[in-house]
Structures are given as C-alpha cells and as structure tokens.
C-alpha cells in the first residue's frame, strides 16, 4: 500500500499532512486530546465504581444480576466497541464522541434515579456500551491529528485519564461512605454511580465544538471542513492545497479499495494489536483493581457484623485499592515522559519484564509469609506490578490501537482490537474467583507471571517500533513488500 502522505504531495508542492505531522503541539492540541479522553476518565470511573456501590444496592440481586452488573459491563463494552467501529468510519470521529458522551450521561443519570433492578441493569448496559464505544474511538481521533513526535504522549492521555477515573472512583466512594455511613443503602450508592454524569455532560457540550478529524474529513471529500479543521489546528492551507492533498489521499484509498481495504498488512497489524490487548488483560492487571478490596481488605479490618462493619470493611478495602490506584496514576507519568523518546517496544518489553518479576514477588508473599510481612510484600509486589503495567503496557496498548491502521478502516480495526481487550477483561473478571478457589491465589499469580513472559516474547518478536513515524509511514511498516514492489515499478 502506498504512503497516503507521500502521495498527498504534488511534486514540488507543500503537503498539508506533512505540516500537521511536524507541528509542535499547542495548548489546543493538549486540550483536544484531553477532551477526546474524558471518555477514558469515565471508562475508569464507571468500571471501578460498581465495586464500591454493589454491597449497598438495596434490591434483591441474584447471582446472575450480580455477575451482570460486574462482568456484564465488559461484554457490553465489547459490543459497544464493535458497534462504534463501522459507525465512526461512516459518520466521523467527532459525531461518535458526542453521541458517546450523551450515552454516558444518560446511563449515569438512570443509575442514580433507578427504581428497580431492571432499570439498573438497563442503565449499566448503556454505560457498558459507552465505555466500549469510547475505547474504540478516542485514540483513533487523536492519531489523526497528532504530530508524529508527540503522538505517543497525546495518546497516553487516554491511559492517564483511565487511571485517574479509577482513582477518583475510589476516592469518591470513600468520601461519600465516610460522610454519610447511615445512607450507604440510600443516597450513597446512587451518588457513587450517578456522579459520572457531570463530566459526561461537560464533555457533551465541549465535544460539540471540537474539530472533526482532518484526515477523516479529507477522505470523505469534505474539503471546506478539512480546511477549517486544519485552521483550528494551526495549519493554514489554501483551497487548492487541500484539494490536491485530498484527491491524492482519495486516489490512494481507491487503489486500496479496488483490492481490499483489509490488505494482508492491515490484517497483520490487527492481529498484533489484538493479541497485545489480550495479553494486556490476561496478565492480571485488573485483579488488584477489581478484587483488591476483597483480597487485601481482610489484612486491614478486624471483622464484626452489621451494616457499620460492612461499611468499615468496604471503606478499608476501597482505601487499600485507592493506594494502588494512586500508584497507577503516578507511574503513568513515566509512560507519558518516555513513550516518544524510548519508543513503544522498549517500554512494553520492560513493562512485561517488571510485571513478571513483581507478580512473582507478590505470589511469594502470599505463599510463604503471614501477618504484617505478608501484607507489606503483597502490597509492594502489587504496587510495582501495577507501575510496570502503567509505564509499558497500559497506554502502549491504547496508543498502538490508534496508530497502526489506515484512516479508511481505522475505526473498524481499532474497534475489533478494543473488543478483544474487553473479552480478555471479561474472562478475567468472570473466572478469577473460580481459579482462585481451585488452585489458590499464589498459583493464579504464578500463572499471570507465566503469561507476562509469553507477552514479552510476543512483543519482542512481533511488535514493530513506530516511534517518530507519521501514521501513513506506520502503514508501510506493515506492508513492506508491497511498498517495495511499487517503488520498483515507479
Ligand atoms: C486497561 C484497563 C485497566 C487500566 C488500569 C487500561 O489500559 O485497559 O482494563 O483497568 O488500564 O490502569
């Protein structure tokens, strides 16, 4: 497949995409990336708040309903991603980001004002769909305007927002439950679930004014809008320059379409990103987050009975997990700092190496220690395990999801990859308790460490380095033979 960028330039002419690629991001770029990632914040918030609220929902929750409320969200997210993919390729990134914020807001409000289990399930289903849709689109939107030397940083904001969302969910739960312990089964759980509506409504209002992705506009022949979007991004271009760039980009896409959009290279890229995502989940990152309160709280509480004890236990568990959540947020800074300097591969390889080592440390704590030493070693092991993930694996996954595919199928390919992530997430959430009960926590952790080694080998063998390349050059990395053949012909 030819480089869209190379062909978007007439001989001797100026390439507007080139200019976009080489810009130094202004505040507006950072603002746009953050706005695209408000959904990431809600993704973190809404997948974590249910853990704190669940114990206090006053309806009769069958085990199916409980499972649906916790794990069903992951499957809903997989569906949301798959639905959003084709829609965003057809209707644009911005339209879907706006719709997504609206669904988040409606889901949160319905959760807060729920009158029965059915309504709660419907509300959480909506939220699951929004989380999935968001995870399919956010970094694709960013990749389409980000200058190449800062695309890593701008995309890591998604991971950062996810981690902040997770942390804020715990902090808000602790504040609410401590401020009004008597209303745990009244107002508290509704507030915990409903507060996500505030950022969602703000994002809805602000996203309505964000520019559409210039690459997507260009591909769809909306040249006036492309010029306006580029103007907002600080790239002034004449109508003629835009026309030239667009007709070349479209010609390239048509050449590809006449064969198939899903060339061998695109399929290869999709498999690598999807497998990366699967490993991102099955190496156990969400065990400390989703099951941290249950696994760790017992080291910190004295037991007892009644609602007061239940609130105390919940608060203790959430507090412990909040510490891990804070570590996660802080460690993500290092991903932000180094992703464009060192590159995706070294961070991912280092990340999985660290995850292997520290998961084994925590496992040894579980297996061989007791009392305070056990608590300390398990907490330290988990903290460094999470840090390793945060630096090398979390954000890298969402970044490569946005940058590896061509514009015409970016939405669909990114969506399939995101769906694989959510299916991996579902498998862990669903089956961890059973595995834990069967073989014991220590062995489950050893299993995660083994999977992290496999992930490391996979990255070392199959993940190409894409640091500093434009998104069009990234495509050439996947289709080297075809590019070489075309170069030989011309
Ligand atoms: C993962 C989430 C995880 C989070 C933790 C994300 O990259 O997709 O499943 O909860 O990182 O920081």
Salient structural properties:
490 residues; 81% helix; globular; binds beta-D-glucopyranose
What would you say this structure looks like, in words?
The chain has helices spanning 4-7, 16-21, 27-36, 38-53, 63-91, 93-112, 117-143, 151-179, 184-194, 197-207, 214-219, 223-232, 239-259, 264-282, 286-297, 306-338, 344-368, 371-403, 407-439, 441-462, 471-478, 480-489. By secondary structure, the chain is mainly α. Beta-D-glucopyranose binds at residues 159, 162-163, 285-286, 289, 328, 394, 397, 421, 425.
Largest sheet: none
Q: Hey, roughly how much beta strand do the residues contain? A: under 5%
Number of helices: 22
- State mean pLDDT (0 to 100 scale): 90
Q: What is the distance, rounded to the nearest whole angstrom, between the alpha carbons of the first and last residues?
A: 13 Å
Shape: globular
H-E order: HHHHHHHHHHHHHHHHHHHHHH
Structural class, judged by helices and strands? mainly alpha
Please tally the β strands and state the result. Answer: 0
Q: Helix content range of the residues, please?
A: over 70%
